[in-house]
Amino acid sequence: MDKNEIKVFCPATIANISCGFDVLGVALDGVGDEMVVRKIPEKGIKISKLEGQDLPMETHLNVAGVAGMALLEQSGHSGGFEIEIYKKIKAGSGIGSSAASSSGAVWAMNELLGNPFSTLQLVQFAMAGEKLASGVAHADNVAPALFGGFTLVRSYGPLDIIPIHSPAELYATVIHPQIEVKTSDSRKILKTNISLKDGIKQWGNVGGLIAGLFMEDYALIGRSLQDHIVEPIRSILIPGFDAVRSEAQKSGALGGGISGSGPSIFAFSRGKEIADKVANAMEGVYRHIGVAHDVHVSKINTEGVRRL
Length: 308
Prior knowledge:
Blueprint lengths: L4 E11 L8 E17 L3 E8 L11 H13 L4 E7 L10 H16 L6 H16 L7 H6 L2 E7 L2 E6 L5 E8 L5 H6 L7 H20 L2 H7 L6 H4 L6 H10 L4 E4 L6 E6 L1 H18 L3 E7 L6 E2 L1
Parallel strand pairs: 3-4
Antiparallel strand pairs: 1-2, 1-11, 2-4, 2-5, 5-6, 7-9, 7-10, 8-9
Helix pairs in contact: 1-2, 1-3, 2-3, 6-7, 9-10
């Protein structure tokens, strides 16, 4: 095994999970990017290859470069790193494209340096990439990408991340209509104040969802997948949203909502058989209204970024 080079899988993620805006996320197993990271004698980060998406290769304009520099500056390492990025997650899809690049870069660099940093520290470095992508250093995608499974960001100041149990039979179906919704744009339309009534409903659902995950109570998970604050506003940007969610639930989904800032829509199901039926139902809506789309069915990835 080459101690100076590593190839990694960087998972796609679902953030918010309906009721947990900016604090809940989960890693997926069926879709993700790949990266090759190697040590080089020159100081700094060099992105030498980027395939799959038209994204900047300049270090200061690329989320992997920015996240990597955040780690490098704290590492005391005398050299630098070269990064090859193979994007399988489309930018602006709502399943953590920027988080996969940011998380993969810092996880791989940490491995090559002998793991001097904790997973929590890696999240903080990866958040620098998220700030470049969206204008906000949020952790709800990078936390599950690095910890694996479901994660709760209990606090941002100081950063406090709680790994949440993943029920064994839980599957995610994610459909991506081929339109781009930039995270930075979808944040601009949100209200900055909420009513006490909506707040009470929302934190009841957050507590219910976390309890449901730990108890493996699938019905409770489904009842808790409701968003009274963000989804009513953001869903306006997504064609066919209400119909897609409705057809998913008719096909047996526990519940679902917008993945991250959209336009992808997710649904959770108990078992792969139902998750596949849900995928067909969701696709049927977009075929009917003539919207090109991708669909992914995935078990929960409890490992996060991993070596290939």
